[in-house]
Specification:
233 residues; alpha/beta; Rossmann fold; 2 domains; six-stranded mixed sheet; four-stranded antiparallel sheet; 7 helices; 34% helix; globular
Length: 233
């Protein structure tokens, strides 16, 4: 797996924000590659650029300079509509705050990406039930987020991210709002999805023990730059 062909190629990536009259460099000259089917962590202190990098990989933001290529396609050159299609079909995302719709059930939250993809109602339900079973929550399909624990909400978010069968799963601090036991369960789920589906997973995390136990490599950022990469599988 270490020599898997890259699904992600990032070259000389930079992102600068303007805050009032001040220019803030969130990322500077970042170059990295991620092999298909790898489980990779992005690690670093707060403010090091981890979430900015993940948002760029997910097409939620656009770079100030440099290129991002995913599965041979230059996403850094995409327009807004093309980026929306990329996010819908190629890159599933999960977040620290779950981002579930409070008024919808677990099943309806998982179905939502399929609604936007114009999948018919019967197939939407079949696929969503199957995904909730995969994350161990079929018995909670009719419950709304406020009726679920934090770990259960994150499992729903994982299922939703998988709805359109993406090649890439991006997780931004997915354990940040969870206790240590539940955090381990979520990362274990991501690792199992990585193994069973050959799904490429890129996870932002500052939890060194989980990173060491589960991922295959870690990219370390400091002040918006890559300062090291470790591989141990």
């Amino acid at each position: 797996m270490m020599n898997a062909p890259p699904i992600i190629q990032v070259r000389s990536l930079a992102k600068t924000y303007v805050v009032g009259r001040v220019r803030v460099a969130a990322l500077e000259d970042v170059t990295l590659s991620v092999g298909e089917g790898r489980f990779v962590a992005i690690s670093g202190a707060s403010g090091s650029g981890k979430s900015t990098l993940l948002n760029l990989l997910g097409g939620l933001d656009t770079p100030s300079a440099g290129t991002i290529e995913v599965a041979g396609v230059l996403i850094s050159a995409m327009d807004r509509d093309t980026l929306a299609r990329y996010r819908r079909y190629q890159a599933g995302m999960i977040f620290q705050s779950f981002n579930l719709i409070p008024s919808r059930t677990a099943l309806e939250n998982v179905e939502l990406p399929l609604v936007f993809s114009n999948v018919d109602k019967k197939e939407r339900k079949r696929r969503s039930v199957e995904l909730l079973e995969k994350v161990g929550l079929a018995h909670r399909a009719g419950h709304r987020p406020m009726e679920l624990s934090g770990g259960e909400q994150q499992r729903v978010a994982v299922a939703r991210a998988l709805a359109n069968n993406p090649r890439l799963l991006l997780a931004d601090e997915p354990t940040g709002n969870l206790d240590s036991r539940t955090a381990r369960e979520i990362v274990d789920l991501l690792a199992e999805l990585n193994r069973s589906r050959n799904l490429t997973v890129v996870m932002v995390s500052h939890e060194e023990s989980l990173v060491r136990e589960y991922v295959q490599e870690v990219v370390r950022l400091r002040d918006g730059r890559v300062v090291g990469t470790e591989r141990w599988a």
